[in-house]
Request: fold
Amino acid sequence: MNVTVNILSLLQIALAIVIGLYFINLMKNQTGTRVVVDRESKKEMEKLRKMREISLTEPLTEKTRPTKFEDIIGQEEGLKALRAALCGPNPQHVIIYGPPGIGKTAAARLVLEEAKRTPGSPFGPDAKFVEVDATIARFDERGIADPLIGSVHDPIYQGAGPLGIAGIPQPKPGAVTKAHGGVLFIDEIGELHPVQLNKLLKVLEDRKVFLESAYYS
Reply:
């Protein structure tokens, strides 16, 4: 009887040791994962900091860009309609059409600046003007990459990335999200893929963006 009790006690002690070692090892792995994630994040931040320190000469197009409405010649009616659509308390979605070089982008930028100064306008002082060229805004039909709407990077099926070790899906905001609270100017919008146009229409109607993934519901 005593021998049986001793054997059971030894088994319990051994089992407790095994369980303890398992949890200790699990905690070490989690700590190591956090350390790796922190280290990778610091590396990325350091890269961005170095990139910001590099400055190039200002492009000629930026130097000659109109800075006031008077610089845009012969578009008084168009500017009036654009200001009416964007400078009120309920800004509207607008399609601006015209030949290249007529000043469509410049007019939209100036109207946004005026809207920021307009009382009752929902555009805040930090509202962004995000410009997208639809001719190069290509996307993946599986939802892996979408520079316009956004996507979700899956660390298992699409490569690890900085947070891949932790198995964390990473949302990749598109231009729509980056322009939140401001103006998204899509140049050559007619060149967008029909699938992108349908997604964009849904965003315009609901004013919400849903980041879809081929691997997550």
About this structure: Residues 1-55 form one domain. The CA atoms of residues 116 and 123 lie 5 Å apart. Helices lie at 2-53, 60-63, 76-86, 104-117, 175-178, 194-206. The radius of gyration is 27 Å.
